[in-house]
Design goal:
The protein has 476 residues and is of the alpha/beta class. Helix content is 44%, strand content 14%. The protein is built from twelve helices and eleven strands. The strands form two sheets. Strands 1-2-4-3-5-6-7-8-11 form a nine-stranded mixed sheet, sandwiched between helices. A two-stranded antiparallel ribbon has the order 9-10.
Length: 476
């Protein structure tokens, strides 16, 4: 009913030219005192604050770097503190604006519009006293690497671009890749991987999320500025090899020979090692900026720790069935609601008739009633168990943790519950056939038939959903 998950192994890795990340021809960093101030950046419809750092006592106008946030709230008090301070003390002015949040939600993100917002900060930084307006560039991290190429194309005055932990591929594609890597690190059973394209590929409940298919490649293919590409080899969420290779190909299409790629051993998504921003990275970043334009095309182009990427981050197949998140949620919640409410409604009605002194309705078949109760309870328990299992695995995966009791034991529990539900469904079918063969009524009255067939239909729908999400795979 849905796409399988069979990522293609990467067999042609990008080979580093040297293990040293040092930038040939890097500019000599200064040792300046830093003047820090908070400025306001007017945007269309709102204003954000930004922290400006300017080296004090420079003999000439200095280059400058504007920082573009990754995913999240993006406050200047928390973001890029080490990078901005290192650059400023070495002789590079920096500006870290607060991210605009009134147009940024989980459902809606417009990267082109966000680029326009950040360009307001770029224009402000170019006008700062002591800043060379011809040497102002952009540092973008993670999600921000989908924004910076748009800025570079729309504003040719952007002097250079540093793309750090860049996803490069569209968000949906990167999300599937990241989930795959996290699950492999967590050690989940192979059957669980089936859920990746079915979850990531479907249209998510409530609509929105159009940005999931945003493709930055057309903008990268028009970038003419020098580009610094940085990854940490301890970052499992990014396509380390594929991302760099695509950026190299894309800027080549623009006729741009100025690229530099660096990999830092054991560094994570924020280029941190043991929670501290890698000082070697800060040295290289500063030297690359100060040494431009010469450092833009200096050899070696690709250097540092040898990156590894097991699989390609490929386009995600769209599910044919249950590919609409709204339908899936409606189906599951509606089925669970029917299972819970129908028997309660019948019991309430019987109780009302008894209190009013009216005769009770005909007794139902107790054997069938017990079987329906077991079917209802086991089916709902399997759904709840699957949800909690996926939540537990997600927490482990995001924390780079392993827990065999949760990962293996939890999956076993879910599958056992699922088998109990199937056995209960079979017993209901057997009982219904025996009652029909004996000429006995399957239910009494309209409400009795509604409870019987409504419960059966709801449980059948949930069993199909559970099968769709892999509970009944045989591993073949």
């Amino acid at each position: 009913m849905g796409p399988q998950w069979a990522p293609v192994p990467m067999t042609d890795p990008l080979t580093v030219q040297t293990s040293s990340t040092a930038i040939p021809g890097a500019g000599e960093p200064g040792d300046y005192a830093v003047r820090t101030s908070v400025v306001e950046v007017p945007l269309d419809g709102t204003t954000v604050e930004a922290q400006l750092r300017v080296p004090v006592g420079a003999d000439e106008d200095v280059p400058a770097v504007l920082f573009v946030h990754g995913a999240g709230t993006g406050r200047y008090v928390d973001a890029f503190v080490d990078q901005a301070q290192a650059l400023a003390s070495a002789g590079v002015a920096t500006l870290v604006p607060d991210k605009r949040l009134d147009t940024y939600t989980a459902r809606h993100r417009d990267y082109v519009a966000m680029a326009d917002d950040y360009l307001h900060s770029f224009d402000l930084l170019r006008d700062v006293d002591g800043v060379d307006p011809d040497r102002v560039g952009v540092y973008a991290e993670s999600e921000g690497a989908w924004i910076a190429p748009v800025m570079a194309v729309e504003q040719p005055d952007v002097a250079f671009v540093a793309l750090v932990s860049a996803p490069v591929v569209p968000p949906r594609q990167q999300a599937a890749f990241a989930v795959d890597q996290y699950l492999r690190n967590t050690g989940v059973p192979q059957q669980v991987f089936r859920a990746i394209p079915r979850a990531v590929g479907m249209s998510l409940p409530g609509g929105g999320f159009e940005y999931a298919d945003f493709d930055v490649a057309p903008y990268q293919r028009r970038m003419t500025q020098p580009v610094l590409v940085v990854y940490g080899t301890g970052d499992a969420s990014m396509p380390l090899v594929q991302g760099a290779e695509q950026i190299i190909r894309d800027v080549a299409i623009a006729g741009n020979p100025d690229y530099t790629v660096r990999y830092y051993r054991g560094a994570d998504h924020g280029i941190r090692v043991d929670t501290v921003v890698d000082p070697v990275f800060l040295r290289d970043l500063t030297g690359w900026v100060l040494g431009l334009p010469g450092t833009g095309s200096a050899d070696p182009r690709v250097a540092g720790d040898q990156p590894e990427q097991l699989y390609w981050a490929a386009p995600v197949a769209q599910p044919r069935w249950l590919g609409n998140g709204d339908v899936l949620v409606f189906l599951v919640l509606g089925a669970v609601g029917l299972i819970v409410l129908l028997p309660l409604g019948r019991q309430a009605l019987v109780g009302v008739r008894h209190l009013r002194g009216l005769p009770r309705s005909h007794h139902r078949d107790e054997g069938l009633a017990r079987r329906l109760a077991v079917l209802s309870a086991s089916t709902v328990a399997t759904v709840v168990g699957l949800v909690f299992y996926l939540y537990g695995v997600a927490r482990l995966a995001l924390g780079y943790e392993r827990n065999g009791w949760v990962v293996q034991g939890g999956w076993l529990v879910v599958r056992v519950l699922g088998l109990v539900a199937v056995a209960a469904a079979a017993s209901v079918v057997v009982r219904l056939r025996r009652l029909r063969a004996a000429g006995q009524p399957l239910a009494h009255g309209l409400l009795g038939h509604a409870v019987l067939w409504g419960t059966c239909a709801a449980c059948a729908a949930l069993l199909v959903v559970l099968a769709y999400w892999g509970v009944y795979q045989l591993g073949i």
